[in-house]
Design goal:
Keywords: Membrane, Transmembrane, Transmembrane helix
Helix content: 55-70%
InterPro entries: DUF3267
Number of helices: 7
Largest sheet: 4 strands, antiparallel
Number of strands: 6
Strand order of the largest sheet: 1-6-5-4
Radius of gyration: 19 Å
Protein name: DUF3267 domain-containing protein
Oligomer: single chain
Distance between the termini: 20 Å
Number of domains: 1
Pfam families: DUF3267
Strand content: 15-25%
């Protein structure tokens, strides 16, 4: 660790962080336009799924359970989301999974993943986008192509869950490929190290 700190002296440190409130509002700016594109395309491609009798029979079959399904999916899905971050980053860490910390922010009832090591920009971004890609974009595309509303809705739910990740990736848009990045230990965001 001490050697890594000495090497970091050759870099200029830039914190890219924001409050949870601001992050939630800005993350919606990434997600809402995507929803406004995807949902009408699905309805256009599969209009028979939105006929009155189909919708009635769906609600009759599922009743009040329809409100529990997203919650039942989201809780284990949030854990898998964080595991995907950690497992991807661990591939690029010198100490592997020992450099990954998992936990729960109890005040917000949300699990989190923190990478303790400094990573190359590409590796950090890959870990940042992995849950949104695997659990969000891919199931949304599969659902859209197959006309499977469950896959489609699952994907949209986890695209929503990846809104904060998309925001952090957006914050890194001006970083150079040779920059190094580290998860911020306390705030939403990261620390970028630019060669001095």
């Amino acid at each position: 660790m001490e050697q890594q700190e000495l090497q970091m002296q050759d870099y200029i440190k830039q914190e890219l962080t924001m409050s949870a409130e601001k992050a939630n509002v800005l993350a919606l700016g990434f997600i809402v336009p995507l929803l406004l594109v995807c949902v009408p395309i699905y309805v256009w491609m599969w209009p028979e799924q939105f006929e009155a009798h189909t919708i009635r029979s769906f609600f009759t079959a599922h009743k009040e359970k329809i409100f529990y399904y997203p919650l039942l999916l989201f809780i284990p899905g949030a854990v898998v989301h964080e595991l995907l971050h950690g497992l991807t980053w661990a591939v690029f860490c010198k100490n592997g999974l020992k450099s990954i910390k998992y936990g729960v922010h109890w005040k917000m009832l949300t699990p989190y993943c923190h990478c303790k090591e400094v990573l190359p920009l590409k590796a950090y971004m890959l870990g940042g986008m992995m849950p949104g890609l695997v659990m969000g974009i891919l199931p949304t595309i599969v659902g859209l192509m197959l006309g499977n509303l469950y896959f489609f809705a699952f994907g949209l739910l986890f695209i929503l869950a990846a809104g904060g990740d998309a925001l952090i990736l957006w914050m890194l848009r001006k970083a150079k490929k040779q920059d190094l990045v580290q998860d911020h230990p306390d705030l939403i965001g990261c620390i970028v190290y630019k060669k001095a």
